[in-house]
Amino acid sequence: MTRDVWLTRHPYLQPVADVQSLVAAGADGVAVHSAPIPEWDHYAADFHAGIPLLRSSTVAFDFSAVETAVQSLIRSLASASLPEPLAAPCRDLEAEIETTDSRSPAHPGLLHYLGWVVLVRYLAPVVSAFDAWRDEERWLRNYCPTCGEPPTMAQLVGKDPGRLRMLSCGRCRTRWRYSRTGCPFCEAQGAHRLAVVAVEGEAGLRIDYCDACSGYLKTYDGEGSESVLLADWTSLHLDMIARDRGLKRLAASLYDLDAS
Ligand SMILES: [Zn+2]
Ligand SMILES: [Zn+2]
Hints:
The protein is of the alpha+beta class. It is about 40% helix and about 10% strand.
């Protein structure tokens, strides 16, 4: 499944795909060097204590470089010809960069999204080195080992027995292991299993939900195509199905359905 095939089948996702492409093209034109790989030995004790990498005082990243790059991205988007729902907010953000007054931003959701577009690029080598270093058995927590965010989606990997559930972070793109059955939001475990809603016409994608807290997790239960099928925005229709059933989105999202 490629992104283009997916969009042909889900044409209502085209506007969000267009915004993504415009922002990615803007980010491609912005220079941001890569974060240095941390000294894992210094971080190990914090890791075992459950402190995510970006929140550990043993690791120093140069976020000022990221901030400069985000400002360059905002300037480049503000001067590009963007569709109107995006153009005015980008110009507002640009105007805010020029003022020294540090009020809260007018478009915090957009700023957060643009910030993570740049951060993902800055952190990519660290996320992959962390994947290689990390002992998944020593984490198994319900928040991202890299940035501390709750999961955005899940994926079932491998064959029974020994099938694993991986959680994925929509912000920094880390994937980490979690228990196969428990609820990652209220952490109900043991005999408690999540219920499953199959989504008609979407082989491999389903909604797992918890009776105890009404939280749900979009879950990909198939092989291949992960980058398309594990992207939060490509499955926004599952969020609508879940919301229609009275379930609550407790997962993290950069795409808030209720945002105006
Ligand atoms: Zn993360
Ligand atoms: Zn729960």
